[in-house]
Amino acid sequence: MKKISILGSTGSIGRHALDIINGDEIEVAALACGRNIELLSEQIEHFNPKLVSVEREEDAKPLSTKYSSIDVLWGEDGLNAVAECDADLLLNGIMGMVGLEPTYKAILSGKDIALANKETLVAGGKIIMEAARNQGIEILPVDSEHSAIYQCLNTYRDPNTSENVIRRIILTASGGPFRGYSIEQLQNVTLQDALNHPNWSMGKKITVDSATMMNKGLEVIEAKWLFDVDLYKIDVHVHPQSIIHSAVEFIDGSIIAQMGMPDMRVPISYAINYGERKNIISVSDGNSELGAKSMKFTDLFEIGNLTLEKPDMSTFKCLAFAYAALEEGKSYPAVLNSANEALVDLFLKEKIKFIDIQNNLESFLEKHQPVELKSIDEIKEMDREVKEKIRRGLW
Ligand code: MG
What DSSP state is assigned to residue 76? Predict the structure, then answer.
């Protein structure tokens, strides 16, 4: 039986994954979460992992008393232990830069990675992809768009030479809650408005990133690393219905798209089952006590129209920043990512306005002196510096 460990087990990705994991086919070896101890306890009782990790020591102590037969760890060391534990596959569904090092450690310990943590590739793409190649492990994308691209490429006979036959990657974006807004209209939007995503239910940070379009920018960078394509071949299309999850155009003019109702269980299942298609509905009914919602098949008549628009990069500048950061290279993508994370955090605490995320990012990036980041430690150090500067408003 295949063994899986999960980072971010009580978050959106983790909950959706555990919802479709059938204990007969996949064994849950280890779980890591933040502070939702109540849900973690339910998960422990249902899946019997051998190791769990939580964010804080004060939450770890009572858990290890309650579940004396399992190892309970905490903090960064705990995350790394879960990443390195005895398993075949790590599902990294944690949010933010904190997900980078565990991915790297899991790769070095020979595990395949089902990757939902964007920051891993945005900040550490070169190092991570090199390590994956050296270790001969697979990186299976979980993000719905990258899973779609991966599924489209799997329709092609020889994936090893697929780079030559890709004319273009069509990366779709819902456009978020502020699609069609002008800069003036963006001035007065509230936190509540930004958290109100039309199609996907996700964590807060990624929901704000969807509203600024930074999420799509990070996904452009992620796609570049995952599929090894030139930047100019990645083309963002705004598609408000979120039915086409992305598409690939091949050199013969054929476009292959992957479609379906927006449901994260589909890409998660495709990743953790290594591209094998499963009946998700029957599995998710089995674990319904953990809050599973039933899955819907797609009714194209009900949807009626699928529309596509050009993204407005002069209003939603974060997307343009991401292309520029990737083009400039060096430390730019990592710094873009860290600065954005810190600014979104300030916005979530209502210390800055929505529009200040992109305005501050622009001025921060303009002043950045790029350096080559050669190791995970150097990326982590840069991340600390950038976040500290943003928190203190010093740049
Ligand atoms: Mg996505």
Answer: H
